[in-house]
Write a structure and sequence with these properties.
The chain has two helices and eleven strands; from the N terminus they run E-E-E-E-E-H-H-E-E-E-E-E-E. It is mainly beta. It has a domain at about 10-105. The radius of gyration is 14 Å and the shape is globular.
Amino acid sequence: MTCKLNLDHFTGLTVTDVKKKKPHPLILDFCSGGLSVECPWRLTAKGSIVVGQTDFLASGKNEYYKTLLSDSLDRKTVKKAEWLDDCYMLRIVLSEGYILDMFHDSSEQEGWELYHHDGFSLISLPGGEPEISGKKRGTE
C-alpha cells in the first residue's frame, strides 16, 4: 500500500553522484537534492537483486560492488519516488528498470533522508515513521 505522500517533485531528477562509505551511508546526489541511506537497502533490476547493503558487509569485494553500484545508478533518472506505508519502505524507481528500496530496521536510529534543494525533506524516524520537514508538500 502506498501512502498519500506526494513525492512527484523528485520525478525527473538525475543521479549525479553515488557514494558508498563504510559501513554507512549510501549517498545519492541528484541534480536538485539527494538521498542519504543508513539502513538496509537493495538495488534491483528486471526482478533480480543487483547489489545490496549486505554485499558490502559480508564480502571482501567492496571495490567491485562500489563500481557496480555506481555504474548502475550514475546518470539514471528518477521515474517515481514512493513511500510504501504497509512495509515502511521508501522506493525509488529509476530509468533503465532499476529500483532502489530502503527498509528501516531500527527502533532507535533514523534510516534515511530524501531531500530536495527547495527545502523539502522526508526522513525515516526511529521506528520507521516518515516525517516531512522544511517546505511542506501536500498529500495526494
